[in-house]
Structures
1.
Amino acid sequence: MTSTENPAPEGAKKNKPTGAVILQILLSVALLGCGVALAAYYLKTGPEAKPKKRQSSPTLVEIMPIKYGTHQLTVNGMGTVFSAKEINLTPGVGGEIIAISDNLVPGGFFVKDETLVTIDPIDYKLAILRLQSEVAKAENDLQLEMGNQRIARKEYEILGQEVSAIEKQLMLRNPQLGITKATLQGVKATLAQAELDLKRTQVHAPFNGVILSRSVNLGTRITESTVLAKLVGTDEFWLKLAIPTDQLKWITFPEGDKKGSKVRLFLQVKENGGSIRTGRVIRLAADVEERGRMATVYVAIKDPLCLLPENSEKPKLLLGSFVRAEIEGTELTSVVAINRDHLRENNSIWLMKDDNTLEIRKVNIVAKTQDQVLVGSSIKNGERLIVSSLSSPLAGSTLQLLQNDTVKSKKGAVSQ
């Protein structure tokens, strides 16, 4: 038996699967749209990430308290030692040298009025003897003329004639008397010159000094202008210092009874922290140096070669020595001395305020020395000066002491 099935319509086979596909697509789109909507919602309404403010740590610093006080200014200079007295010794008369002092050698010391050279005096002694006889003759001639004067006056009185004034002078021999007196005076003057020349055969030292060089020897024939030796006085040497002109106002120059500033002298460097010699400012030159435009100040050093017993242990200052000098300047009151290292740009300093923040303050500089600046009226007693170095100083930045509540002490940062 054969059964026959009726086939489904063609159109019915195709519609069923197409609807399912569409439904799946719609569901997928709906789900996707919901996801997008939720994502957008969460993006708009979600919490925002806020940046966290970084906490800066305070800068550690060292400080010094500001203290006003009195400060002795010091003016520094460099200079060369030279002689206060220096001469070429000449005799004043000529002749042969018959004696020379043992001290008349280079480096030899002598005292004032010491005989250094003796010239043969024979010619001068003979000249004196000759002139003494001429003086005696002139004196006798004067006596003889005085007798003639008395005779002439008596003869004039006996004659009793009226004559002119000129005739009277001639009759009384007044011209002859004048000539005789003048001759006597001339001969006496020549004798005095001869006696002076005799004294000059002994050549004496004009001051205490030392021989730099000698030009003659025993037996040398010299003239009155021959240079015998070069002498330098040893009682005092001078020092010529170059000083900046703006620092002259701090130096005291002698005037009347007022002495010049005291000066400490060092041979290039300090020895054991103390000055080797002392001197006094004596004068200021009227011009300035052409190169450095520096003023010239002269300093006197007593007994530079230490010839006096009280100076025997001190070092000698030789001619031509190059020395450093510290002049005691004016004493300033009510100032603060700050190390140059603690003076910042534009003449300012760093201060730690009461709220532990940085203040940059410009100060009024009264004076400057080699190591310090002197400040007045710009700061107050007790304010805290920062002596530490700051890489990026910014006004108002927070500070902290290197050691809590401890004021560090750094020698020379602020001194009275």
2.
Amino acid sequence: MLLTSAALLWVWSDEVTLDDRFTTARKIVLFLFRPQRQFAGSYQAFTKLLQRWTDRLIECLKVALRERIRRDLPDCWLILGFIMFGVDGSRADLPRTRSHELAYSLLRHPRKSRKGRKLRKRLKKLKHKALSRKVTSPQLWLTTMFHVGSGLPWDWRIGPADSSERAHMLAMLSTLPPGALIAADAGFVGYEYLKAILDSGRQLLLRVGSNVRLLKKLGYYAHEQEKTVYLWPDRKASQQCPPLVLRLVIGDNGKHPIFLVTSVLSEKRLTDRQVVELYARRWGIELFYRSLKQTFQRRKLHSASAKNAELELQWSMVGLWAMGLYALWQLQKERLPSRRLSFAKVLRAFRRMMRDYLHPSEPGRSLCDQLRKAVIDSYHRQNKTSRDYPRKKQEAPPGPPRILTASAAQIQRAQALRFELSQKG
């Protein structure tokens, strides 16, 4: 309990250095709990304790916080009858130290390895040394499974900057409730990954682009409707793997059409309009990353050691999750929706209480009182013409997927595979 409390206060603190944050956290822990034994007399001792216990403590906290979301935020649990989750990845910058470069820089790959050869070809094309230094700077990759209804994380995985976010997603799949709906962008396309989601009893909602080939009119493999499509790469077909049956929905985000596929085939269960609405709710994970990296100031971590950097990011995720959950519980008493929560005001409320822990709070200035007021303003900003200037990446929208009519050979193979599967069943 002491170590967990100190770690949370450590990441909540607004001191400049990690050492000063620990000093502040330790003072508050000693004041609150008055332990009989000496507790982590130095920052080095504190980090050694975290390295030993973080994995077990984080897993226990994840289980407890998930249960609190389910129990304390019942109004946020379902969206249109689905327990909906979004998944996406982001990078966190690291100081350029030898420890980080050996653990997380792309240059850690041997020259003769596939990734090493690919990286050096890319560096040769860069004209400026500053760009090559930016490409090889050490970074951590964070893939987050995000509970859309509450706007809070559910699980995450951390690795080097070249980690596979799709592999991270599969590692988190077992933590989701049965029947959950997973919404993801076009970066999570892949037959093996989508099949793993469907085989686990979960549903999917995915944006697709020009890098995806879909089939239609595959005969009597499934009960076909007008919007029925199949994901069935040639390589998987030759391996006798079954096609994935999906529904194609075309929406519009105001600028260009978006192409979505979902495993929920019945329009009575989920209409096209609701599919587009659910995918729009996935944007909440981008807002969470903004809160983590800008409001919580974790765009670049402070730890000089590779082991400590992962600890810093792990506890930062738990700290932000715990703050947000407690604040949402207070907002629910005021009957305010979760989307009104302001992480900036929540963070200021916690830090104000940490600075004044020795003094009794004034009437109406307790932590609960401040959290009930931690909502974004209702002012609607009309003019956003400057929001893309000057550093926002101007990415071209993904093109439409390639939709082909199944050939006679593909129809015959699908029917033979269906007959074989029915015989085994």
